[in-house]
Every structure is written in C-alpha cells, then in structure tokens.
Amino acid sequence: MGTLLGFDYGTAKIGIAVGQTETGTANPLVTLRAIQQKPDWKRISRLIEEWLPEALVVGLPYDMDDSETEIAPLARRFARQLEGRYRLPVYLADERLTSQIARQERGRGMKKYDELDAFAAKLILETWLSERR
Hints:
- The protein is of the alpha/beta class and 133 residues long.
- It has helices at residues 41-51, 72-86, 98-106, 115-132, and strands at 3-8, 13-20, 25-33, 55-60, 90-94.
- The protein has a five-stranded mixed β-sheet with strand order 3-2-1-4-5, sandwiched between helices.
- A hairpin with a 4-residue loop joins strand 2 and strand 3.
- Helix 3 (98-106) crosses helix 4 (115-132).
- The radius of gyration is 14 Å and the shape is globular.
C-alpha cells in the first residue's frame, strides 16, 4: 500500500504519525490542537499534501471490557470526515492501551506532554500494520 497516516483522535488535540506498509513501522509526527473544538483541517491538509498517504488509520477507543468509550462516536465521525474530505480509504484501529503505553514511554525520553498523542498515533498505526501482516 505505501505510506499511511495514523490519528489518535481527541476533542482537544489529535496526535498524528506516519508509517510505511513495507516496513510495518511508524514515527510520530505532530500533535495538533483543536481550533474552536474542531480539527485543525488546514494543518491536516498540509500533512496529507506533504506525505501523500495511500490510506488513513484512526484509533477507535475501547474500554477493557470491549465496549466503545464515550468518545468513540466522535472518533468515527472524524474518520468519516477524513474520508469525505480527502477521498482516501480510512480504517479504524483498536487503540486500547496506546495512551497508557505512551505515558509510560514519556518517562523514557519524551520531553513534552504533547508528544504523547503523536506517540499514541504511532502505536495505533503500528498495531494496525502488524495485524495486516
């Protein structure tokens, strides 16, 4: 498939990572803050123009009992908006525990709190990629 962008959706900020299907790896890119409670579509558009992804992956938040969290409908809506705006395939990926793992990693070198969301997007994308291998 090629290059993918992964998203850790939140109402206040969205972490974004870039990954490659060939290697199955991803790297954190940036965390974007919401503008008036809406995604920063200008910056998302710039990232899509820059990286030219073949597809997008959005983390879908689940609780440990396999039920979707209260933010899951908003993440689904964001995924539909991405698909409508950019005409790219959008896949949903279970993001359970990615934020917790990112917080653990924060103690091992992440300097800024905002790096957590981009790192969580990296984990979401790598999980999705590994499930496809």
